[in-house]
Design brief:
Length: 525
């Protein structure tokens, strides 16, 4: 059976013609990806869909269909069976019975009136102030000179059944768009259950941020490739689990966050947050056991693992700051609503995000992720002394926690059979701790951990008010976070499930299978 590589078909919107895709086309073609652009007449929605369908008829094989702004309505209206994925770039996408104007004006907007010839054009100055404020003056002038006008009939006719109800969609949300407000875009994207990628870009990121546009299209292409491999060569569940992990990087407003990703994006999202002194690699045994059931994302926190570790004078290493970066990361990678797994430092990070966005939290798994005073053991005494008196002597006294033997002790304390603990994680953690500047960063975080304890009442209030689905799986021999800390969650969430395991702090090293079973059982119930 003949197979075809996907073709990316790009539809322009009003006031930005085919040439607005040129930078994106160059990026895609440099990677060997086939692309097709074409001209929309912009006379009526029906005429535009006909132009699109004519183009699709000439393309062999599967298609990733991309639409900018108004063209979101056009790509939503085709019925072509070749389309495997839809990508909206600040797109308008009416539901059945709605017009483009209905969506455009949903939250209020200045009316755009046609000229004497019946076509709607933008004033030249609008290209610098609203349409492409991030473009160069030369690019703004070129856009103004070549703008394709649009007829009112294109935006005032009700749409039919939209393709986004039947085909997976991706959405680049332009946060600094002065044409289609970000609020409108988010409404559109969330309604279609798209994978949202939000960036601080203007209305025409194809011109001003083509790399971001190409990356979102690349995500859709990867989805098609994965689906095709499964259809042509079906794998057993074990094979899928072992081969599904991807290693990626996300640009979080200039901060490079490394993350692991596995599972279908159609599954419930699961965010895994690691602790000290580890990174996302601590989930290496858990991810394969959950990737059939969840879309998993496991980032390395700022300053940890493969993520950026800027100098302390360029980045404040506080838990507030770390949580802000990871919060933004979840938006960029499209985790609109998710379950969060928190361990150690991941707990104050994840709980901060939950307090800020309770509507986005579908559940919480705490694996030795503490939020109660009674959960703190005497092992915290030297750190608490540093909180009480942040002297240089007290700071230096904590360096023992950063020594290689201390890392091994954290992994093996409370484990009945130490031969079950792989030395690889220990060695990798010690490698990261030995990097220049890492010691000072970790000592800063030891001091700032007091901010987490100060927030415990805030976390408790969130638990009581929102009652998230909550599962605690706890290594009962943890030398830092005691079992009473796990039991205390039921005080604020009576329906929480608490399960203890006969192991230590890094429970996944010895009990990944049991934890995976608990998670699958709890969230499938």
């Amino acid at each position: 059976m003949a197979t075809h590589e996907p073709t990316v078909v790009l539809a322009h919107g009003a006031w930005a013609g085919e040439s607005s895709w040129s930078k994106v086309v160059n990026l895609l073609q440099s990677k060997g990806i086939k692309t097709v652009t074409f001209r929309l007449p912009l006379s009526t929605l029906a005429d535009d869909v006909a132009a699109l369908d004519s183009t699709l008829a000439r393309v062999d094989g599967p298609v990733v269909l991309v639409g900018h702004a108004y063209a979101g309505a056009v790509i939503s209206a085709t019925r072509s069976s070749k389309v495997r994925a839809l990508v909206y770039i600040a797109g308008l996408a009416p539901d059945e019975g709605e017009t483009v104007a209905d969506v455009f004006n949903r939250f209020g907007h200045d009316e755009l009136a046609p000229g004497s010839d019946g076509w709607i054009r933008l004033p030249e100055k609008a290209f610098a102030t609203a349409f492409a404020q991030h473009a160069t003056p030369q690019e703004q002038q070129a856009l103004a000179n070549t703008q394709p006008p649009i007829a009112p009939a294109s935006i005032t006719v009700p749409a039919g059944h939209p393709l986004w109800k039947d085909v997976p969609a991706w959405y680049l949300l332009a946060e600094q768009d002065h044409m289609i407000p970000a609020r409108t875009q988010r409404f559109v994207a969330e309604r279609m259950k798209a994978r949202i990628r939000a960036y601080p870009v203007d209305h025409v990121p194809s011109v001003t941020a083509p790399e971001l546009v190409a990356n979102v299209i690349g995500d859709a292409l990867q989805h098609i490739a994965a689906s095709s491999r499964t259809a042509v060569n079906p794998l057993s569940p074990g094979d899928i689990a072992m081969n599904a992990i991807r290693y990626r990087r996300a640009n979080v407003d200039g901060f490079n966050i490394f993350y692991r990703e596995a599972g279908s994006t159609d599954k419930p999202h699961l965010l895994l947050l690691h602790g000290f002194p580890s990174a996302g690699h601590m989930f290496r045994d858990l991810i394969p056991q959950l990737s059939e059931h969840f879309h998993i994302v496991a980032p390395d926190l700022p300053g940890f693992g493969q993520s950026d570790m800027p100098p302390r004078d360029q980045f404040a290493y506080t838990f507030d700051h770390i949580a802000d970066v990871i919060d933004r990361f979840t938006e960029i990678v499209g985790l609109d609503r998710f379950i969060v797994y928190v361990f150690d430092y991941g707990a104050p990070t994840g709980f901060r995000i939950a307090v800020k966005h309770p509507e986005r939290i579908a559940g919480i798994i705490s694996q030795n992720g503490n939020a109660y005073q009674e959960g703190l053991s005497d092992g915290w005494n030297p750190i608490q002394a540093y909180w009480a008196n942040p002297s240089e002597a007290n700071r230096e006294a904590l360096r023992g926690f950063l020594a290689p033997e201390a890392t091994r002790w954290q992994y093996t304390h409370g484990v009945a059979d130490e031969s079950l603990v792989s030395p690889d994680g220990i060695a990798l953690d010690n490698h990261y701790l030995a990097r220049s500047g890492a010691d000072a960063i970790q000592l800063d975080l030891f001091l700032d951990y007091r901010s987490n304890v100060a927030l415990y009442p805030t976390f408790h209030a969130y638990f009581r008010k929102h009652r998230p689905r909550f599962l605690a799986v706890w290594g009962k021999n943890d030398p830092f976070f005691l079992p009473p800390g796990a039991e205390a969650f039921k005080r604020d969430m009576p329906d929480a499930q608490i399960r203890f395991l006969d192991t230590g702090h890094f429970a996944l090293e010895t009990h990944a299978q049991e934890i995976a079973q608990a998670i699958r059982g709890f969230f499938a119930a």
